[in-house]
Amino acid sequence: MTDSLPAVVVAAPSSGSGKTTIATGIMGALRAAGHRVAPFKVGPDYIDPGYHTVAAGRPGRNLDAVMIGSDALVPLVRWGARGSDIAVIEGVMGLFDGRIETGDSADPAAEGSTAAVATTVGAPVILVIDARGQSQSVGAVVHGFATHDPRVRLGGVILNKVGSARHEAVLRQSCERVGVPVLGAIPRSGALDVPSRHLGLVTATEHGDAAVAAVEAMAALVARHVDLEAVVRLARTARVPAATAWTPDAAVGEMPAGPRPVVAVAGGPAFTFGYTEHAEILAAAGAEVVTVDPRVDRLPDDAAGLVVPGGFPELHAEDLAANHDLLADVRALADRAAPIHGECAGLLYLATALDGHTMAGVLDLDAEFGSGLTLGYRDAVATTDSVLFDAGTRVTGHEFHRTRVVRAGDHPTAWAWRRDGETVREGAVGASGRVHASYLHTHPVATAGALVRFVAACRSVRFG
Fold it and tell me: Is 458 assigned a catalytic role?
């Protein structure tokens, strides 16, 4: 790989501007034009990368500076972009929005914001603007975003939901007046709406063939209305710093000699919230990773560990509860003292009951769907020794759920953190530390050592 890497960031003034549709469309259109596209998403989002994967034909990856640290961003981009000729990075929220501590206003680009990531990665920004309800005022918006932080290079604008040819002409003139080129203008259309639910978009895995059709439509729309050659030219002005690519092998270090334990990872429509690097690190640490769909599958006979990531089990609770054989498999795995890790949806699956439906019962707790959204970064400390972490280990993670635990048994907690001036204790550690479950999502790039430890514990599981 050469040091040169064309890259571009697709951002917006605010959420709801259409950046997911346009970023995904750019990825798909560039791929259709013969480019090898590396897709990325700023922040902890699990849903958009699924659509990026469909569009680009290679795994979508997250660039979350809050959880992995800004120093890891460029190495992770280099890893995700190997073998590609252009990287397309979709932003999060508004361009300058990110994690802000109370009273912290010294930096115009908040920690973990799209602007901060674009600056670190050295990529120019394309601003997607919802043009409804404005004409000449768009120039003031563009000017403000172009000058707000001199470290951020605004390379162009894509106008979204343009009402007419006249409307487009006025918008273009206003942008050009402030010196920012318009790279495309997307007409108003309701044909590309992707179904949404309580946590955001329906995942690409659940939407299936319809997701593929939606991505194809996004790509066709962008190909018709965006100057792709101008996007590529802009991407070629990126100055991505030269850096050694992050690799799972380097993150793991020297792999111990010995058998490769089988680690089952829950997948399918109910468990789609996982980072690409998780399975990569497990494999580099010596595991044979096998994906199972808990709605219909059984555990492999030689499974020595289980990972249940996040997702929407509350929407598939009936099917999950009906797979009695797998629930029995999971209980038997726990009885053998095999390592089990549940993250968010995984916590719910390992519980006794979810919305009245029988779950695995590995943990003595019940959960139900609620009306309030719990969302945000957490600076957490492990409160109990477990198969993953020593008590006292500090991590930065992220919560994103509408379910809640309504009955908790006598398990030691997994994490503690401060929120609104109070200490929150969360999660559960069971089976003498061999089971670790929590609502907290962590990023494997930042916690690779915990996964190495998990696989090492899997090697000690005995069968028969």
Answer: no
Phi-psi region of 78 (alpha: psi -120 to 50; beta: other; left: phi over 0): alpha
φ, ψ dihedrals at 38, nearest 5°: -100, 115
Residue 231's nearest CA partner among 148, 324, 155, 331 is 155
d(CA 224, CA 231): 13
AA identity, residue 253? G
Q: What is the reported pLDDT for 94?
A: 96
By DSSP bridging, strand 303-308 and strand 353-354 are unpaired
Q: pTM of whole model > 0.85?
A: yes
d(CA 116, CA 298): 44
- State the DSSP H helix or E strand holding residue 457, giving kind and residue range, or none if neither: helix 448-458
Where does residue 69 fall: left (phi above 0), alpha (psi -120 to 50 degrees), or beta otherwise? left
pLDDT of 205 strictly over 70: no
Residues β-bridged to residue 417: 424
Q: Which residue in the list 47, 204, 344, 348 is annotated as catalytic?
A: 344
- CA–CA gap between residue 411 and residue 389 (Å, rounded): 16
Pairing of strands 262-266, 353-354: unpaired
Radius of gyration for the chain, computed over Cα atoms and rounded to the nearest angstrom: 23
